[in-house]
């Protein structure tokens, strides 16, 4: 715990005349007199990111500096997303040190200026500890901090915003403008439209009102335009409507009707895939929709009674509906198109710390931030795997003490940021500065549970998740109370003190009542209990600095920055992962967490190796040698043969929710076999278990992916008159055929070419294998060599290929290790020069300007390229190496590269298959699944779910707020 001093700091005073005492900051990871940067090994890398769809380069920056232990993916994403300055200019950041310094030094300066630290020495410790934690991927601020802090632009630090709109045209137009400005800045916003009168009510002029659904149309068009004009990702927004609004049924059906439109247009031949040319003609696609339900409504659903829909202006009953039927319509809509989600109004406001200042009516787009209208929240997330300890005897524990200290550090920094932050609107700035909402959270929970031998859907897994969440929020509010003693409570505290302290007691009571599961979570619960006791004591004495402390966000881009295997509260996607290598290649490896889990479960090293090799081949654990069936559920993932049940996701949310200020960004995945009744049950159980919000996604339900529906058969045309066609005949090679295997290097890219001949008549096939290049290049070379081989066997002359493909320019290019072809303008250029030298007659290739080193030397000496008869060596063309040797070498190279990357031998590394560019695509290929995710607009790879949003593993782009 950080202490406060009794002396003044910089002569500043908190509100109310209290003398500022300043914080004493204690060291956690750093060493006095040694900067964190000096304790790690740094290396320079080249970052080149391409679009997998067309091969174009999206981003390129060479010579960037990162710690050696940072993965290629983390370095690529930080370089392309967070380094500031124009690429190619001296102002461009080129080192992780510069990025961290830009942010951390700004936080330190603001902390000193606002009296947070007891002394300059404490400020320096704060700076070094914060830098260490980011450097070692222990935590990360949300993306806007890395985008904006320390730059000359606006210092926006928040990713989450809630707006408001009233029943007036002026307010509605302000909504459009404010939302647009937030989208332009790359963030997302949510709001509740229930104040707008319904289409069943009258205007003051006597006509019928348009209703909120009609105004949604205008806002959706605006969001789509700003997205296409200023960014490459879809706008992120949340639209909420209360269940008692007279237009609620129209609201529920908005996206259902649009899905029907998409299907009709797609069947008519229009491009309706996500990102397709014609999808923009469809409405309401830029928002997540949620219905805000009350306890009264849910009880009416259970009892099958009527429920009143009330006018917005008078509160009088406009209509009565059957609650169960309305609930059914919500489930039917969600079953078809994943919208609307559901938010439980009474549960949300039961945990509201500031009810005297207004109700909580809405959330941010990803549903984790829920507080007052016209407010914002800045986020930060901790990497839970960094706190898992293994002792010498193989026992595991969660380092609760160090975790608590890092939470204190991060919460302090997050609160400091509000002192200098800019906001998109003045109203949001006023509310945020008055209530100082923070959103600390975590990532890698799924990896932590698996590594500790816990099934995601188990009492032990939920116990560990609940204890960590309780400790995190308890320590956050304890630090908030300590900050209140130093720099004063938030402005709205005095008015809401009773409610705030009541909510603190609710958290503490939930902590006491929680079930302790095993030796891992019990010590964490004990630490959390102590923290909550301090919260109650210090809060009563000092008040609190922050109205809100914690949420569980998607942790999309920042999760990749921290090299997390899993995002937010989500389970693992699959057991086999796609890994980029420093050399430019890629491989598939079994997750780091699998061997840890097997060791925790008591398996011996040789058993672990056998199980891991089985997983590497099959992608799952079913029938793995020596693995006991009762341990299968430890390795259950979000998708695959053993996927976690929908209620398993809901139960995990319920385990964490009582210990969070806000809510949880998560979508409950449901198999394609799920029924509408299954969706109803999930929504009902979410309410009963105390979650604040839920969204479901039934696999293969949305039309934004290719569907299997067949088009109507066209009428058969009359059979045409038979025409005799003369086609070339393919001449296949015999089983035994002579060949040459050549290893080569072009511009640092290594590869092998095997060229096989007909016994008596020239070249018949070519095999190309790339060693360290990316999987797409390797796959394209495979496909290219097959196409050339088929052409050769149908009689296309080799000289035709040589004339077409030599001198073709593209990367990699440059120096080669072949003395006959010293420079090549591309791999294709080299390949056909080498084939010409090996298989074409001298006269033919000489006419094409292709000569060997000896021939070029002869030309210098004699003026002629043509060799004498004595110099011809026909027998040399028959030399070849066994093809099996090249495969063995490729596998060995992958293992060597894996070892250099810090991947253990037990993880069974193998070259990644040619069609995979990330873990989602690898999983689809290995398990034969469709992940039902959109393609990334930036790099063309398939995204994966992260909370309620989508994340691109390749470039770090997200479909929602960061």
From TrEMBL:
Extent of Basic and acidic residues compositional bias: 885-902
Species whose genome carries this gene: Streptomyces ovatisporus
Keyword flag Oxidoreductase: yes
Keywords, sorted A to Z: Cobalamin, Cobalt, Disulfide bond, DNA synthesis, Nucleotide-binding, Oxidoreductase
Region (Disordered): 1-22, 854-918
Protein family according to the UniProt entry: Belongs to the ribonucleoside diphosphate reductase class-2 family.
Domain TSCPD: 737-837
Pfam family, one: Ribonuc_red_lgC
Cofactor requirements of the protein: adenosylcob(III)alamin
Descriptive protein name: Vitamin B12-dependent ribonucleotide reductase
MF terms (GO), sorted A to Z: ribonucleoside-diphosphate reductase activity, thioredoxin disulfide as acceptor
Domain Ribonucleotide reductase large subunit C-terminal intervals: 158-697
């Amino acid at each position: 715990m950080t202490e406060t001093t009794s002396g003044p700091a910089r002569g500043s005073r908190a509100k109310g005349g209290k003398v500022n005492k300043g914080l004493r900051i204690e060291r956690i990871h750093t060493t006095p007199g040694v900067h964190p940067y000096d304790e790690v090994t740094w290396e320079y890398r080249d970052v080149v990111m391409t679009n997998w769809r067309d091969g174009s380069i999206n981003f390129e920056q060479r010579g960037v500096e990162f710690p050696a232990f940072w993965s290629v993916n983390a370095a690529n994403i930080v370089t392309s997303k967070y380094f500031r300055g124009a690429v190619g200019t001296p102002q461009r950041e080129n080192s992780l040190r510069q990025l961290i310094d830009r942010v951390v030094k700004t936080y330190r300066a603001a902390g000193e200026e606002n009296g947070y630290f007891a002394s300059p020495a404490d400020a320096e410790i704060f700076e070094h500890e914060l830098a260490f934690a980011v450097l070692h991927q222990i935590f990360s601020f949300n993306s806007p901090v890395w985008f904006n802090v320390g730059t000359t632009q606006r210092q926006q630090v928040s990713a989450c915003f809630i707006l408001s709109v009233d029943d007036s045209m002026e307010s509605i137009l302000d909504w459009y403008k404010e939302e647009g400005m937030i989208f332009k800045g790359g963030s997302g916003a949510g709001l509740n439209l229930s104040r707008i009168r319904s289409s069943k009510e009258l205007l003051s002029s006597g006509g019928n009102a348009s209703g909120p659904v009609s105004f949604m149309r205008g806002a959706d068009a605006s969001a789509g335009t700003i997205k296409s004009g200023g960014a490459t990702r879809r706008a992120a927004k949340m639209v909420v409507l209360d269940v008692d609004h007279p237009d609620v049924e129209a609201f529920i059906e908005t996206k259902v009707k649009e899905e029907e439109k998409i299907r009709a247009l797609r069947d008519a031949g229009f491009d309706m895939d996500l990102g397709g040319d014609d999808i923009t003609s469809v409405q309401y696609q830029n928002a997540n929709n949620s219905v805000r339900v009350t306890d009264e409504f849910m009880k009416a659903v259970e009892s099958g009674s009527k429920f009143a829909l009330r006018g917005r202006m008078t509160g009088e009953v406009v209509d009565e509906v059957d609650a169960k039927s309305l609930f059914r319509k919500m489930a039917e809509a969600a079953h078809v198109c994943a919208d609307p989600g559901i938010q439980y109004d009474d549960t949300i406001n039961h945990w509201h710390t500031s009810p005297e200042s207004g109700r909580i009516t809405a959330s941010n787009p990803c549903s984790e931030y829920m507080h007052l209208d016209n407010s914002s929240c800045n986020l930060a997330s901790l990497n839970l795997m960094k706190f898992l300890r293994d002792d010498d005897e193989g026992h595991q524990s969660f380092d609760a003490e160090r975790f608590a200290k890092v939470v204190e550090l991060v919460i302090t920094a997050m609160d400091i940021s509000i002192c200098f932050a800019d906001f998109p609107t003045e109203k949001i700035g006023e509310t945020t500065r008055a209530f100082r909402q923070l959103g600390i959270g975590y990532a890698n929970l799924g990896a932590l549970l698996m590594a500790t031998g816990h099934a995601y859907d188990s009492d032990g897994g939920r116990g560990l998740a609940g204890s960590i969440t309780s400790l995190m929020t308890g320590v956050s509010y304890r630090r908030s109370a300590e900050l209140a003693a130093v720099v004063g409570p938030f402005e709205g505290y005095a008015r809401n003190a009773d409610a705030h302290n009541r909510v603190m007691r609710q958290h503490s009571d939930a902590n006491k009542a929680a079930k302790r599961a095993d030796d891992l979570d019990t010590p964490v619960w004990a630490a959390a209990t102590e923290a909550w006791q301090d919260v109650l004591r210090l809060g009563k004495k000092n008040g609190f600095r922050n109205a809100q402390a914690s949420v569980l966000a998607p942790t999309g881009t920042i999760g990749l920055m921290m090299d997390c295997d899993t995002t937010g509260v989500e389970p693992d996607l699959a057991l086999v992962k796609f890994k980029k290598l420093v050399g430019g290649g890629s491989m598939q490896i079994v997750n780091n967490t699998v061997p840890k889990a097997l060791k925790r479960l008591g398996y011996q090293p040789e058993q672990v190796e056998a199980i891991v090799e089985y997983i590497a081949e099959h992608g799952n654990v079913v029938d793995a040698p020596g693995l006991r069936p009762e341990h299968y559920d430890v390795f259950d993932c979000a998708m695959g043969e053993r996927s976690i049940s929908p209620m398993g996701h809901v139960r995990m949310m319920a385990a964490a929710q009582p210990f969070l200020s806000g809510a949880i960004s998560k979508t409950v995945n449901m198999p394609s076999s799920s029924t509408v009744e299954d969706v109803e049950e999930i929504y009902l159980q979410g309410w009963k278990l105390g979650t604040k919000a839920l969204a479901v996604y039934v696999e293969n339900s949305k039309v934004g992916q290719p569907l299997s529906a067949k088009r109507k058969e066209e009428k058969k045309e009359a059979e045409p008159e038979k025409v005799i066609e003369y086609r070339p005949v393919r001449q296949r090679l015999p089983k035994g055929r002579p060949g040459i295997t050549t290893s080569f290097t072009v511009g640092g890219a290594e590869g092998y070419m095997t060229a096989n001949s007909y016994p008596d008549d020239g070249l018949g096939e070519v095999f190309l294998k790339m060693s360290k290049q990316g999987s797409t290049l390797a796959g394209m070379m495979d496909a290219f060599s097959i196409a050339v081989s088929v052409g050769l066997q149908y009689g296309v002359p080799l000289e035709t290929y040589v004339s077409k493909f030599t001198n073709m320019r593209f990367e990699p290019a440059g120096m080669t290790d072949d003395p006959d072809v010293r420079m090549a303008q591309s791999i294709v250029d080299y390949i056909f020069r080498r084939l010409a030298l090996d298989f074409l007659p001298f006269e033919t290739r000489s006419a094409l300007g292709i000569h060997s080193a000896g021939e070029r030397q002869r030309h210098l000496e004699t003026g002629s390229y043509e060799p004498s008869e004595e110099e011809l060596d026909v027998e040399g063309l028959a030399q070849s190496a066994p093809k099996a040797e090249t495969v063995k070498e490729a596998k060995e190279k992958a293992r060597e590269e894996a070892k250099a990357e810090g991947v253990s031998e037990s993880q069974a590394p193998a070259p990644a298959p040619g069609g995979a560019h990330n873990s989602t695509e690898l999983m689809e290929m290995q398990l034969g699944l469709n992940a039902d995710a959109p393609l990334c607009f930036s790099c063309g790879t398939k995204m994966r779910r992260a909370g309620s949003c989508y994340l691109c593993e390749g470039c770090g782009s997200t479909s929602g707020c960061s």
